[in-house]
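for the writeup, i need someone to sanity check this before i put it in the appendix. the sequnce is what the collaborator sent (i think, or maybe the updated version? ugh). structure was predicted straight from it, no edits. if anything looks off just tell me and ill rerun, i have time this weekend
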Amino acid sequence: MDGHQLAEELTAHDAFAAHVDAELGIDPNAVTNPRHAHIFPAIAFTVGSIQSCPSGGARWAAAVARIVTGAALATAVTYGIGQPVELPASE
């Protein structure tokens, strides 16, 4: 089998997935969805802000609001940057 025939067979079904797998070793179907990736950081920021309030002497409601707002803004910016470069779903 020559290189041209091998390339045609590898890319016949899903050329994008074949190239990403061969070049980068990434399975496009195993990549984390950016819509789901924000859940655990949001929980971590909320729990962390509640735990660090007593040690800093801050009111917990203000600290939680400040930290969760900052985390939501960071998540929105990250999502906005990642959305245009999100990998297309394989067929």
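Residues 60-82 form the longest helix (23 residues). Residues 32-86 form one domain.
thx in advance!!
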